[in-house]
Amino acid sequence: MSTKALAGKVAVVTGGNGGLGRAIVRRFISEGAYVAVLDLAPPEKTSGGSLLSIRCDVTKPESVKRSLAQIRQTFGTVQILVNNAGVLGPVATVAEINVAAWRRVIDANLTSTFVCCKVLAADMIRASYGRIVNVASIQGKEGTALAGPYAASKAGVIALTKTLGKELATTGVLVNCVTPAAVNAGMFDQISAERRADILRRIPMERFCSVDEVAAMVAWLAGDECSFSTGAVFDLSGGRSAY
Ligand SMILES: NC(=O)c1ccc[n+]([C@@H]2O[C@H](COP(=O)([O-])OP(=O)(O)OC[C@H]3O[C@@H](n4cnc5c(N)ncnc54)[C@H](O)[C@@H]3O)[C@@H](O)[C@H]2O)c1
Question: Which domain holds residue 77?
């Protein structure tokens, strides 16, 4: 018998071609999972073996449903969903941001999570087993000047996690989220040096989070060892978060 924590499990990772997503996919495959990546960006690696890459807009239910049909055919029933796709959005004040930009960020970060949970949880409920891990952000707890839509969308992801965790608590499907502070990869590369220095000053461990640290926590939440946590928010902030 394999001792790998996710051996034989079928996982979906949205935004799996981005900075954090790639690390999560790598970790899941090393733990023995079959992984389907849903991403708008072209795949870094072609599908094959335990990886299936699908071009999909995760804000669109029809697009996610089509992808699910393909995943079922290739790997079988999905047991794990990681809602990781997202965008940073404008670095500007609420006064400066227009409604279209607001909607784009809320859609990419929050509506996508809602859509994927709706479409993918049904099979998990039927099978009385599932793990959903949402990638939120510390900004959803704290709010961040110059990132209103992003922070609000991540607060929404936290509240959706708590809600769905409660709704599905007796079904065998656990729903949790992680709230990283700055991870030195992916969308963080879009942030100015001055803003990075300011973020670093607020992290008691005096360093940024690594993608592998995020992947390790996500992998634990996606596995069987996570069994009595649902609707919960897992910190990855190097001591910054007070709750
Ligand atoms: N990098 C950080 O510092 C940090 C910190 C906390 C939380 N996060 C969160 O981690 C997640 C991953 O971020 P990242 O830093 O790897 O960014 P990234 O930009 O490298 O990756 C995001 C991925 O999501 C995909 N995506 C965006 N919209 C999509 C859509 N509608 N449909 C399908 N795919 C879509 C992009 O194509 C991209 O591959 C995001 O949810 C982000 O908010 C990142």
Answer: 10-236
Q: Has residue 1 been placed in a domain?
A: no
Active site residue ranges? 150
Nearest residue by C-alpha to atom 32 in ligand 1: 57
Q: Which pLDDT value is given to residue 162?
A: 98
CATH code assigned at 73: 3.40.50.720
Residue 139 near residue 211, CB atoms below 8 Å = no
- Calculate how far, in angstroms, residue 130's C-alpha sits from the geometric centre of ligand 1: 23
In DSSP terms, which residues pair with 174 in a beta bridge? 131
- Of the residues 24, 37, 87, which should be mutated to test ligand 1's pocket, given the most ligand atoms within 8 Å of the CB? 87
Two tokens, residue 64: 């996610």
User: Out of 37-41, 118-122, 193-197, 224-228, which region has the weakest mean confidence (pLDDT)?
Assistant: 193-197
Cβ(29)–Cβ(43) below 8 Å: no
pTM of the model: 0.98
Q: Does residue 17 have its Cβ closer than 6 Å to ligand 1?
A: yes
